Here is the input.
Amino acid sequence: MSFVLAPSPAVGLPVLGTNDLYPVRRVYCVGRNYAAHAREMGFDPDREPPFFFCKPNDDASIVPVPGGETVGIPYPPLTSNFHYEAELVVMIGKGGQGIAADAAAEHIYGYAVGLDMTRRDLQMKMREQGRPWEIGKAFDFSAPVGPVTPRSQSGSIDQGAITLKVDGEVRQQSDIRNLIWSVGEVIANLSTLFTLQPGDLIFTGTPEGVGAVKQGQTIEVAIDGLESITVRID
Here is the structure.
């Protein structure tokens, strides 16, 4: 038995210090997981249960960004308000359902720096109409991700500075410890909704300071202990 069309290739993210690739299965994202960002988006940052949305897991959406290199992504169509969102990305290495928060670290393969690029005007239009966010969040080139640092090298990342610069100017600056829902709590909650599997990525949320970028501008994102990434808007 054969496929009637060639299957799409799996997306692999480089693992720091090796020639190996981490295979991407699903891409989950946590919405409004920093209090100050929730406020700037017009929401009460009270600790309500987290909510999730997804991005595509194909090579049109996921953009591997090698360390020390600048990768260009195109300014997307149908938007005039293209936003950056710096995020810690968690890679699942052992699957499970109903994972306890204090056992979540055992399920993490590693971490990376990521960008949840957003067509903000389209996202807001869908939100106002009570419709899903896909056209604002799940478009081509919407998920640049840096090299994966295995947890065996980094340890568990529960704190550390997260910084985003546009053309050298700091736009976002916070600390992972400011997550409303910690990495372990995010994994625990998400695993009640889905059975997590090896290869799953979790974008854990962005701090305050989100804003628009234009063609020709360069975004740099750094998180303590991880390989930083640089993305140019073409």
